[in-house]
Design goal:
The protein has 201 residues and is an all-alpha fold. The protein is 83% helix and 0% strand. It has two domains: 99 residues, Tetratricopeptide repeat domain (Serine Threonine Protein Phosphatase 5, Tetratricopeptide repeat, Alpha Horseshoe); 101 residues, Tetratricopeptide repeat domain (Serine Threonine Protein Phosphatase 5, Tetratricopeptide repeat).
Amino acid sequence: MKNRGSLVGMLLIFVAGVLTGIGISAWKLDTRGGGDLQSGKVKESEAKNEIRARISGLEKMLAANPDNLEALIQLGNDYFDMGNYEKSVNIYQNALKIDPTNPEIATDMGVAYRRLGKTDESIKFFRKALEIDPNQALAMFNLGMVLRDDKKDLQGALKVWKTFLEKAPESPHAVMIRPWVRQLEEKLGAKDKNVNENKPE
């Protein structure tokens, strides 16, 4: 009976997740398409209420079974979506203790740390994800963002994003990265040219 109850609980959480996704998608379509702003706010509020309900259910589930990896990951994601990045980091840390070789969790940790303004920690976890899986595209994408925007390390960002395009040329993120790579190449090329021109004879 205990297993059956757990299965029903997971099913309810899954359904809530699907409904939340539908709610969020509908809200984005409304605001992007110039729809009724008030209606968009209502849908966003409903989606957040459903996330809160799912968080409550996941916390109860984890109180009974703290090593439930799937529940931990979902809870970390839900706290992230609610803007509670500190809590999200704590949950992801617990998940990494259970599965320390999971590149997706390490990537999520990096993103959460960046939202907290902790860029060094963010870079550390993106690199950890790439140590586990050198083909982890989202870790490369986000690492390049932190290097370019937060650390102003243009050479580092260019190197990471070129590797991304070699390993994941068909990724949806590749469409964004290609013009960024061209911009960085032009900027760094112009910088190198200026340096060479200003060298004493």
